[in-house]
Amino acid sequence: MPGLPKGDFEIVDHTADTAIRGWGSTHEELFANMAKGLFKVIGGEATVSLAQTRVLHVEAENSNELLHDWLEILNALHQIHHELYTSFELIIDDNHLKATVRGGPMDGGAGEFGTEVKAVTWHDLHIQETPHGLEAYVLLDI
Amino acid sequence: MSIGIERVGQGIWEVEPRPDARVPARFVASTKLIASIREDETSLRQLQNVATLPGIVGAAWAMPDMHMGYGFPIGGVAATDVENGVVSPGGVGYDINCGVRLLSFRLKESDVRPHLDRIADMLYEHVPCGVGQGGKVKAGHDVIERVLRDGGRWAVEEGYGTQRDLEHVEEESRMDGALPEEVSDLAKRRGKDQLGTLGSGNHFMELGVVDELREPEIAQRMGLTEGQVTLILHTGSRGLGHQVCTDFLKRMMPAMRRYGIHVPDPQLCCVPIRSPEGKAYLGAMSAAVNFAFANRQILSSLAVEGVAKGLSTRAESLGARTVYEVAHNIAKIETHVVDGKERRVCVHRKGATRAFPAGHRAVPEDYRDIGQPVLIPGDMERYSFVLVGRPKAMEITFGSTCHGAGRRLSRTKARQAAKGRSIEREMAARGILVRAASLRTQEEEIAAAYKDVAEVVDAVAEAGLSTVVARLRPLAVIKG
Predict the structure, then answer these.
(1) Per the CB < 8 Å rule, is A15 touching B410?
(2) H or E segment at B219?
(3) How far is residue B163's CA from residue B179's CA, in Å, rounded to a whole number?
(4) Contacts of A88 (CB under 8 A, 6+ apart)
(5) In the prediction, which pLDDT does B429 show?
(6) Are the beta carbons of A122 and B267 closer than 8 angstroms?
(7) Which of B16, B22, B155, B182 has most Cβ atoms within 10 angstroms of its Cβ?
(8) Is B454 left (phi over 0), alpha (psi -120 to 50) or beta?
(9) B74, A16: Cβ pair inside 8 Å?
(10) Which of A21, A78, A118, A123 is the mutation pick for testing B, counting most B CBs within 10 A?
(11) Has residue B344 got a pLDDT over 80?
């Protein structure tokens, strides 16, 4: 039997890259936890203010694609604005996602950053129901 | 191990085929490397999958530095017929035109050794690297369009380096057929301040020295002599290229279904080369290739300035020269002989390097009688190699060879192996200085995390794909 989830997400070891496994009782919670995992990989131990608020809309054909595109757009926004995001409020309705994300500029951050993420891959990307709620897995190209 | 493999030639192995394979799946390995490759079942399965691509010709190939990728294994090579074959973004990868440049200087190790600390500092200061580091070039819309069309040529016109650099770059640093209009606005926004930035992960800049000549005459023709100071630069098309790949995977998935193409892995997603989506991808990919060419041209110019500052001299006095620059994540339309007939094919090289032999017209004139230089970086602690293309590569692997060492340990395992050690101090004790944007990267990139690149280059030499010309040893390493 697999053990109970230990928290919101975990960073999974992988030879060439890094994967994130996350949990949530709802899709909203799951997607927020996967985003926290993504920014743990990028942001490392750095902390930033919540000075910036951004509102996003993502639409996809299915929930896997929605998760992929959600994490991709967050990574793109991080690169374009040099910001890290740590707070995610989502409403997901039939493969449409509206999110309010908060974070701050990296130049105001304290602590050591993690690593750039080139892309969120489709390799083994999945969302599944488990006895403990929803679980998702994505592999990042580092 | 459930996948059967069989030795079919000197250093050449064949993987048992899938029932839907169109061509054999083959890889290059020495007897030394075969055990570790056998253990990596995922990359062998990925190689089997590549052999099912519509229009693939000859064989699906993997190089001895192969490891798990997305769709294609890293180290994968596939040639598809231009008329009835497909193009697959997975065969190029997210980091479009990730590649390597080698520079040489009119300097000996003894000229730089006393000033190495300052040179390392200056290189680190001049070359933006690490997470979230923007470059000094702020490219507006018009500039991005020019970069996407003209690549390294744009950079030279802007004062970064010289025309002579471009002559020693694949495609002379500008890929024809770029379609900037097929690159999304999001991709352009990701790229706008990433020109002249190194990135993080396994990207690096390394000041080194030629420490062994295996083919002195060929090395001399490349301008390399024993004890000479060199600089290696490894980076790609940054966020712009990554976004192009992401965009086209999304665009191609429904298109692939429309064309009735079935692939065993969604990351192997592909469309006919002649389809509107195929043409758009090749145009956008070529544009991203040009972005990477411009990026390396700018970075190499910044690096030369950094070395000059470190030596308190002028950049012009260093005799800096581009030995060559290769791409190792790219798809190109080339002419190859397949089953005795010349054919136009789209050669996908995903973690593989073009290695054209002497006489090929794509080899710069001054190297044409020795063959195309091939640059194979190793880990930051040991060594890197300069090779040259051989006719055998043209005969069997569509003019391709290996690209690097390939990871052996995960990043977490590497950090565990580095725990309680000062990597910086250990390297300094062996005469190598390291400057890294993060301690974490430094630990993740330790030598033990990688396969021994010497074994990789020996394997391609044994198979006759390329000849080892020179070995380079690191002096100062800049990591993102």
Answers:
(1) yes
(2) helix B216-221
(3) 24
(4) A31, A32, A35, A36, A99, A100, A101, A102
(5) 93
(6) yes
(7) B155
(8) alpha
(9) yes
(10) A118
(11) yes
Rounded to whole angstroms, the Cα distance separating B92 from B72 reads 9
Tokens linked to A44: 């490392």
Six token digits for residue B85: 């074959």
Of B71, B132, B201, the CB nearest to A82: B132
Give the closest residue to B152 by CA, choosing from B283, B300, B365: B300
Under 8 Å between Cβ of A128 and A10? no
Selecting from B94, B409, B413 the residue whose C-beta is nearest the C-beta of A119 gives B94
Chain B's closest residue to A116, CA to CA, is: B131
Residue for token pair 């930051």: B380
Closest Cα in chain B to A73: B186
Non-local CB neighbours of A85 within 8 Å, separated by 6+ positions = A35, A39, A54, A74, A77, A78, A101, A102, A103
C-alpha distance from A117 to closest chain B C-alpha (Å): 9
How does pLDDT run across B391-414, given as a tens digit for each residue?
999 999 999 999 999 888 888 899
- Between chains, do A115 and B412 touch, taking CB under 8 Å as contact? no
Q: What is the pLDDT of residue B137?
A: 86
pLDDT tens digits, B253-307: 999 999 999 999 989 999 999 999 999 999 999 999 999 999 999 999 999 999 9
Give the span between the Cα atoms of A33 and A36, in whole angstroms. 5
Residue B291 near residue B311, CB atoms below 8 Å: no
* Closest to A6 measured CA to CA, from A21, A28, A27: A21
Q: What is the pLDDT along chain A (142 residues), one digit of tens a residue?
A: 345 566 899 999 887 789 999 999 999 999 999 999 999 999 998 889 999 999 999 999 999 999 999 999 999 999 999 999 999 999 999 899 999 999 999 876 667 888 899 999 999 999 999 998 999 999 999 9
pLDDT value of position B62 = 98
Q: Are B473 and B206 in contact (CB under 8 A)?
A: no
Q: What is the DSSP string of B428-453?
A: HHTT-EEEES-HHHHHHT-GGGB--H
CB pairs under 8 A between A and B: 96
- Sign (positive/negative) of CA torsion B139, B142, B144, B146? negative
Question: A95: exposed, middle or buried (C-beta count within 10 Å: 0-12, 13-18, 19+)?
Answer: middle
Separation CA B179–CA B280 (nearest Å): 7
